[in-house]
């Protein structure tokens, strides 16, 4: 039987620094309702979807920094989103700043969760590739301090069998690294979900500003094609606290073709009907890893060639 699922990409426009969690969750619920009305099984929200993208500011007061983090998921502010999703029988992927206690220590991650139609958190991912810098650069128009505020993710790239397919997650800068897709590809991924907050001007690397839109789609289309998977990439977009963020949220097919894209910089839902069995065509032919991939001939060292079993 053909495995069809309808997926939504719920792009968010700017979130003001002073915007309450409750007000943002209201926007998420509005998009989730739209997704349900368009018969979505699953809706993907952006990276750090509950607050403004706070790594753009240098902060020293830990309480102020931690005000942007969630200590529990769901918590009081996000429970209405979970409840509405359960009521409507729709799964979702949500990016947020996670404050966790691990090994008697406090850890802070740029995280995303995958929640099934029954409201169960079936998967969690913590961002591995943290771009930007950890030091204060007051000469720049804005900072990019993920290395200061977040620990490197410690969960790896994984896949989860849920909602009729093999799902995977990554976050923002991860989408620029081929390893991100390949590790999930080796674990059989059929839909990679990701959110991003991407400034259109990158102060520490301005030479590619005019190519930001191109690079955004290039990396997701390549990742999809080379690993025979769908990719759903969803922006926080628009002029957020004086920083212009890229839009261009998109859904990419295993062929590498873009099959849906936003056309605004605000809250906007895109949807597509995914035929998950399409992934098998490439996985069993051009990108049949077992038949064609020869890592023992790549010149890698032994530790980098361990086989990876799907979850
Ligand atoms: N943002 C950006 C991203 O990778 C960036 C940072 C932009 C890095 C452009 C390099 C070039 O999309 C986050 N949050 O990772």
Order of helices and strands: EHEHHEEEHEEHEHEEEEEEHH
Query: Between the first and last Cα atoms, what is the distance in angstroms?
Result: 23 Å
Outline type: globular
Give the strand tally.
Answer: 14
Helix percent band = 10-25%
Q: Could you say which small molecules are bound to this protein?
A: D-[(amino)carbonyl]phenylalanine
- The CATH superfamily appears as Carbon-nitrogen hydrolase
State the name of the first-level CATH class: Alpha Beta
Structural class, please?
alpha/beta
Q: Kindly state the mean pLDDT as a whole number?
A: 96
Q: Describe the sheet with the most strands.
A: 6 strands, mixed
Q: State the assembly state of the protein chains.
A: single chain
CATH architecture: 4-Layer Sandwich
Tell me the radius of gyration: 19 Å
CATH topology: Nitrilase/N-carbamoyl-D-aminoacid amidohydrolase
Residue runs with pLDDT of under 50 for 5 or more positions: none
Tally the structural domains. 1
Which strand-content bin applies to the residues?
Answer: 25-35%
- The tally of helices reads 8
Give, in spatial order, the strands making up the sheet with the most strands.
Answer: 5-4-3-2-1-14
């Amino acid at each position: 039987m053909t495995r069809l699922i309808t997926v939504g990409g719920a792009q968010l426009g700017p979130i003001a620094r002073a915007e309450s969690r409750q007000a943002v969750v209201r926007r998420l619920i509005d998009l989730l309702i739209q997704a349900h009305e368009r018969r979505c099984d699953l809706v993907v929200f952006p990276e750090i979807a509950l607050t403004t993208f706070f790594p753009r500011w240098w902060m020293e007061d830990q309480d102020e920094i931690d005000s942007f983090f969630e200590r529990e998921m769901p918590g009081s502010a996000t429970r209405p989103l979970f409840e509405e999703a359960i009521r409507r029988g729709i799964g979702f992927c949500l990016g947020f700043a996670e404050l966790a206690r691990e090994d008697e220590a406090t850890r802070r991650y740029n995280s995303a969760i995958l929640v099934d139609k029954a409201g169960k958190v079936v998967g969690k991912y913590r961002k591995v590739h943290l771009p930007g810098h950890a030091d204060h650069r007051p000469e720049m128009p804005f900072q990019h301090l993920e290395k200061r505020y977040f620990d490197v993710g410690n969960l790896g790239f994984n896949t989860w069998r849920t909602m009729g397919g093999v799902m995977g997650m990554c976050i923002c800068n991860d989408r620029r690294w081929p390893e991100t897709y390949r590790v999930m590809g080796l674990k059989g991924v059929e839909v990679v979900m990701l959110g991003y907050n991407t400034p259109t001007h990158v102060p520490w690397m301005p030479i590619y500003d005019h190519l930001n839109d191109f690079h955004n789609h290039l990396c997701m289309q390549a990742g999809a094609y080379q690993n025979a998977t769908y990719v759903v990439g969803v922006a926080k977009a628009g002029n957020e606290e004086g920083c212009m963020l890229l839009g261009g949220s998109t859904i990419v097919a295993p062929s590498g073709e873009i099959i849906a894209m936003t056309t605004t910089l605000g809250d906007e839902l895109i949807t597509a009907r995914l035929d998950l069995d399409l992934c098998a065509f490439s996985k069993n032919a051009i990108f049949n890893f077992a038949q064609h991939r020869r890592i023992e001939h790549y010149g890698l060292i032994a530790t980098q060639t361990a086989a990876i079993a799907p979850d």
